[in-house]
Structures are given as structure tokens and as C-alpha cells.
Design brief:
Helix content is about 25%, strand content about 35%. The protein is an alpha+beta fold and about 240 residues long. A hairpin with a 6-residue loop joins strand 9 and strand 10. The radius of gyration is 17 Å and the shape is globular. The two termini are about 30 Å apart.
């Protein structure tokens, strides 16, 4: 199954994905995880052993819901997703730095990037499972966790929209300098994913590229339960 995950990610149309990331800052992906894999994660949510911490979102005023950060060692399927997506997204990350006239800083191999996180005392894994019940939502935010962060993250929806839950769309809001913000609402099918910026995206203007800060969240779940899987590449302090 793990080898199959690598093949699925490598088989995506990365030329098109890279173009979408450059043009709009995010890319909606086709179904990658099977229904059986989605069910595996939903059942895994009920266990205690795989996780380092559980966050009640209401307690911290993050929203209304719950999420759990995995501990090391990660489940093999999550490790494979992290490694496979990193290879292609590191190319985009370095290209974006080039647009902003900054030096490339993301190595080719994922473990080398994690070694940099360790140098900055960021050693706690950040992949997570999320659960929202009716009325649940996630406030707009950025997942930075320390001085070192990877410019992209990937989120999967693990159950069926309009069958298992209603509402709960993925939200992206761009803060445009000296202008009003722009919102994006993205719906995902079971097993499909969204790539989006962790902090900002470069946008070409008349005098070159500049930054749009991007925050993400989840709209209110109006019925049912929504499960998600978040793949974050940098580790946390």
C-alpha cells in the first residue's frame, strides 16, 4: 500500500499542478486515497496510541472541533504521503523563492529538510487528523510552528460530502496589500486533496513579485461529521 501511495502521487499531472500553484496559489487534486484508506484513518481517530496530543479547538478559540497530532514513528502511509509530496512541492517552493529574488533553501530530499527543522529545535511531528461535528468549524489561521516552515501543506477529506456531512468547505483567504481580501471556497470529495500555501504566495505585479498572505480554515459543518487528514511537512517546537 505504501509503495502504491508513492506511485499515485508521482502519477499526478504535476505540470498542471505546478501551473495552478503559480497562477492561483492552490491546487485541487483528484481522489488519491481509497475508501478503505479513508475508513482506516477514521477508525484510527478513535485510538489513543498514535498521537502526541489532542486539541480541543473551542478551548483555544480556534473554532469548534477537535484534532490530533500524530507522534513519531508516523503510520507508514502518512510517512509516504509526506515524502512523496515533498519531492514535487520542494521544486515549487524554491521556484517561489526565485520569484521573490531569494536563495533556494529547500533540499531535494525530505529527510534533509527535517534535519534543518531539528537544528531549529523543531522535532515534534505535525501531521494530524481532524474531526468536526454539526456546528463545527475552523477559524482562519496559518500553521507555522516555529522559525522553519515549508511553504505548502496538503489536506484530505476522509468521508463523503452531502452523504456523511454538509457544509465544511475548505476556505482560503488572501490578504491583498492595499486592497480588500479575496476568498476561495473549495469542496473536496472523499479521498481527494487540496494543496495550499502555509504562509503566503507570490503574485506578479507591475514591478515584480510581491506577497499575498494566505490563511486557511473550514466553514461550518451544517450536518453530520467531517473527518480530515492534514499533511504538514515542517515539524513543531
Amino acid at each position: 500500500m505504501v509503495q502504491n501511495i508513492k506511485t499515485r502521487v508521482e502519477s499526478l499531472n504535476w505540470d498542471s499542478i505546478q501551473h495552478e500553484l503559480d497562477e492561483q496559489g492552490f491546487a485541487k487534486l483528484p481522489v488519491i486515497l481509497t475508501k478503505e484508506e479513508c475508513e482506516f484513518f477514521k477508525k484510527l481517530y478513535c485510538e489513543e496510541e498514535p498521537y502526541r496530543t489532542t486539541i480541543n479547538m473551542t478551548r483555544y478559540r480556534f473554532g469548534n472541533g477537535e484534532y490530533k497530532y500524530f507522534s513519531y514513528p508516523l503510520p507508514e502511509i502518512i510517512q509516504s504521503l509526506r515524502e512523496s509530496f515533498y519531492v514535487e512541492l520542494a521544486k515549487t517552493a524554491n521556484r517561489w523563492l526565485g520569484y521573490l529574488k531569494k536563495t533556494e533553501q529547500f533540499p531535494e530530499h525530505f529527510q534533509d529538510f527535517l534535519n534543518t527543522c531539528v537544528e531549529y529545535e523543531q522535532t515534534r511531528p505535525t501531521p494530524l487528523l481532524l474531526k468536526y461535528e454539526t456546528g463545527g468549524f475552523n477559524c482562519l489561521h496559518r500553521d507555522l510552528y516555529g522559525d522553519i516552515f515549508f511553504p505548502f501543506q496538503v489536506v484530505f477529506v476522509l468521508n463523503q460530502r452531502e452523504k456523511d456531512f454538509c457544509g465544511g468547505e475548505s476556505l482560503l483567504v488572501e490578504q491583498i496589500p492595499r486592497a480588500q481580501s479575496r476568498g476561495h471556497v473549495i469542496t473536496l470529495e472523499q479521498g481527494s486533496a487540496l494543496i495550499f500555501p502555509t504562509n503566503y504566495r507570490p503574485v506578479q505585479g507591475k514591478k515584480g513579485y510581491y506577497k499575498h498572505t494566505v490563511r486557511h480554515g473550514v466553514s461550518t459543518v451544517t450536518a453530520g461529521e467531517r473527518y480530515g487528514l492534514g499533511i504538514i511537512f515542517h515539524d513543531s517546537k
